[in-house]
Amino acid sequence: MDATVRELSYAQAIQEAMALAMDADERVFLMGEDIGVYGGAFQVTGDLVERFGPERVMDTPISELGGAGVAVGAALTGMRPIFEFQFSDFATLAMEQIVNQAAKMRYMLGGEVSVPVVMRFPAGSGTGAAAQHSQSLEAWLGHVPGLKVIQPATPHDAKGMLLAAVADPDPVMIFEHKLLYKMKGPVPEGHYTVPIGKAEMRREGRDLTIVATSIMVHKALEAAAKLEGEGIDIEVIDLRSIRPMDKDTVIASVKKTSRLLCVYEAVKTLGVGAEVSAMIAESEAFDYLDAPIVRLGGAETPIPYNPELEKASVPQVPDIVAAARDLVRGRR
Amino acid sequence: MPVEVILPKVDMDMATGKISRWFVEEGASVRQGDVLFEIETDKAAMEIDAPASGVIRNITGKEGVDIPVGSPVAWIYAEGEPASALPGPSAREGVDQARQQEAAAAPEAAEETGSALPTVRPVASDESSKLRATPLARRIAREMGLDLATLSGSGPHGRVVKADVEAALAGGGAGEGKAAAAAGAAPPRPMSDEAVLKLFAEGSYELVPHDNMRKTIARRLVEAKSTIPHFYLTVDCELDALLALRAELNAAAPVRKTETGEEPAYRISVNDMIIKALALALQAVPEANVSWTEEAMVRHRHADVGVAVSIPGGLITPIVRRAEEKSLSAISNEMKDLAARARNRKLKPEEYQGGTTAVSNLGMFGVKDFAAVINPPHATILAVGAGEPRAVVKDGAVKVATVMSVTLSTDHRAVDGALGAELLAAFKKLVENPLAMLV
After folding, report:
1. What sign for the dihedral angle of Cα B281, B283, B287, B291?
2. Does domain A200-328 have CATH number 3.40.50.150?
3. Is A330 left (phi over 0), alpha (psi -120 to 50) or beta?
4. Could you give the CA distance from residue A220 to residue A290 in angstroms, rounded to a whole number?
5. How far apart are CA B253 and CA B262, in angstroms?
6. Cβ B5 vs Cβ B36: under 8 Å
7. How far is A230 from chain B (nearest CA, A)?
8. CB burial readout B3-41, b (16+ within 10 A) else e
9. CA–CA–CA angle B113, B115, B117 (5° rounding)
10. Is the pLDDT higher at A31 or at B3?
11. Rounded distance, CA B13 to CA B255, Å?
């Protein structure tokens, strides 16, 4: 391995990105509930308060709306705040600041101002945290022009996309799957960025395109490896960014494979997969489809507390294997 | 919402089916699993069960009429579900059924208020006339000037997919006439991998990827069998004299000392003698010791005899060069060495490439007679069956003799029937008079 590339966890990669950003630019600071001495609900900020002090690693009261308002206001005055939510579910409490203020300000003031705020949302199920702490609400924010919404799936991308977000003049919403925090992967030292709005081909194949987001990228890759033994060759695209969305990469892939399966953890109906599916149906790739487009998403239910039901409520590897096999074998 | 009853695909090649008889009448109550109707195919009659419980209505599938696979032939309504309107495509695509019922029940009210949103009542349509095809299948068909209506789809509900169009373009499928015209004289293609796998249930098989030997065998045999005009000649040879000579020769083998002790200097097999006999026969009939090329006949000076050796995962044909010049013991020892190295996959290419003919012997498995595929560039291959006691007629009396049937496969481009027969007669004469092999 290259000397400058280490194995870091997803959480460590984010922490390193935040430290680098703060080192490089004194306008960058962190806000969030219990991110100081406690180190954050998922220990992502860790001991940064010791390095940068409580003025730059700032604990906020238990008010997401208040915290988001301060962050948006600070960004308007030229600061570069990174605001952490304890759970992405609490974005609902801060919708006014995110949707009506942060996303609209630049447009409504004729480009006189911008809102370079970054918000981080620990998202997703699998931790036994029940219905109010396990949702995947990225599509809610993805629906709002003026925001950028990303879902890095690897430690490498978590760091590179956070640094791209800090440098971005507009509000960037980062959805981080909680089960990814401990996942390790190669992360280069120093500053680098991963562009927002560019999907990544994780695996090339000829029989089927799977477009996946966040943790589903890993499940899709696992499914693809299993199906390789059956002679099914799957292409896996990590969407990474849902607004803006990298249409070209998906269109080119579907034109090659003629089949599309969208896999995402959020509730299936009206989700990211619905958007990808419709985008393909409207595109030049339509004439290349040799099977219906299929979506695998979360069940139409609040995330259950019971661990077995919790697992059953979001797509798992066997679900992806079965759906992919049916598509390629002409059973759908 | 009513459940569609379709004409299912019950046979691989089935594009249409005939309902031979209905067991239920319009308006009858059926339970899921009840037999609804019987289909006749080329091979069998099959009873089709109800996919749901309810009341059967709109039986559109007439008895004795060819119906495309996947077409709806009736609908099953829930008990009490109104059947005022035939379910059209909009109903099946999920338009809110309750709203349709509301609109159907109170159309006047809607018209009176004027402010109500317009509602569209589903229109009855002939489902069977609707063609189902994927966008890709449609595009390829459009570009190739192929009429999709001439195809039968292999997808769910009879949907035409790319593979169906490609099969039609390659000359197969239901639309053979038009498709072949569009595509010109394309060679026939084997079934796609997908088409093969679709015939077997998931989990009922495992996939073993091909190694290079398997791929080479497949490629060369397809090439040989589809480009060489084979014909076959069979003859019976009496073996008793040859077996007796073999026993004598082996008994007379000098003993030589090796690291593992003493062993005979050779141990000749029947197959070794067949190699020698075929080599000498080719010398006697040199016109048959040839290879075909487009420009000229290649007449070989020596008989290089390939011998098919079965090895794990396939077979290989090492060659005994100039077999006509070699003694039986030399051929025997060379074969043992070649076969051992073949099994270890240690042969050099020059040891199995080329040759002027070949021997394939399945006698040790008790096979009486078979025909082998010529291994280019050879013009012949000799398939050897088991030597076994058989009744033969000699001088008007039935006697028992050890008889072996051999079949010569011949490339008709290079060797005609009479020439092949001459070669086979020379071979038989040597086998039945084996002392001639010693001089």
Report:
1. positive
2. no
3. left
4. 21
5. 12
6. yes
7. 6
8. bbbbbbbbeeebbebbbeebebeeeeebeeeeebbbbee
9. 115
10. A31
11. 65
Which part of chain A has CATH 3.40.50.920? Answer: 200-328
Q: Is the pLDDT of residue B101 over 50?
A: no
Position B370, amino acid: F
Least confident of A228-237, A261-270, B25-34, B294-303: B25-34
> From CA A226, how far away is CA B170, in angstroms rounded?
32
Place of tokens 């077409």: B71
Q: Topology of domain B131-207, per CATH? A: Dihydrolipoamide Transferase (4.10.320)
Three-state secondary structure readout of B106-171: CHHHHHHHCCCCCCCCCCCCCHHHCCCECHHHHHHHHHHCCCHHHCCCCCHHHCECHHHHHHHHCC
Share of chain A above pLDDT 70, in %: 99
Mutation target to probe the B interface, by most B beta carbons within 10 A, among A290, A293, A325, A326 is A290
**Torsions phi, psi for A260 (to 5 deg):** -135, 130
Q: What percent of chain A has pLDDT over 90?
A: 98
Task: Tell me if B161 and A290 make a contact (CB, 8 A cut-off).
Answer: yes
The pLDDT, as a whole number, for residue A281 is 96
Give the mean model confidence (pLDDT) for residues B35-40: 86
**Strand-pair category, A5-9 with A184-188:** antiparallel
Which H or E run includes A18?
helix A10-24
Which segment of A144-148, A288-292, B243-247, B346-350 scores lowest on mean pLDDT? Answer: B346-350
Say whether residue B208 is in contact with chain A using an 8 A CB cutoff: no
Average pLDDT over residues A96-106: 98
Domain ranges in chain B are 3-128, 131-207, 216-438
Share of chain B above pLDDT 70, in %: 83
A287 touches chain B (CB under 8 A): yes
pLDDT at A332: 77
ipTM of the complex: 0.81
User: Would you say residue A23 has pLDDT above 70?
Assistant: yes
Q: Which CATH class is domain B3-128?
A: mainly beta
B9, B197, B200, B204: best mutation site toward chain A, by most A Cβ within 10 Å?
B197
Phi then psi for residue A71, to 5 deg, are -65, -45
- Token pair 């009659």 in the structure block, residue: B45
Per-residue three-class SS string for A172-210 = EEEEEEHHHCCCEEEEECCCCCCCCCCCEEEECCCCEEE
As a CATH number, domain B216-438 is 3.30.559.10
Rounded to whole angstroms, the Cα distance separating B389 from A274 reads 76
pLDDT tens figures, B313-344: 888 899 999 999 999 999 999 999 999 998 88
Pairing label, strands B72-77, B305-307: unpaired
Task: Please tell me if residue A192 touches chain B, with a CB cutoff of 8 Å.
Answer: no
Q: Is A229 helix (H, G, I), strand (E, B) or coil?
A: coil
DSSP B63: B
Q: What torsion do the CA atoms of B129, B133, B139, B141 make, to the nearest 10 degrees?
A: -60
B194 chain-A contacts, CB cut-off 8 A: 328-330
What global pTM score does this model have?
Answer: 0.55
Task: Report which DSSP code applies to A256.
Answer: H
Q: For chain B, say whether A288 makes contact (Cβ under 8 Å).
A: yes
In CATH, the architecture of A5-188 is 3-Layer(aba) Sandwich (3.40)
Write phi, then psi, for A147 (nearest 5 degrees).
Answer: -105, 155
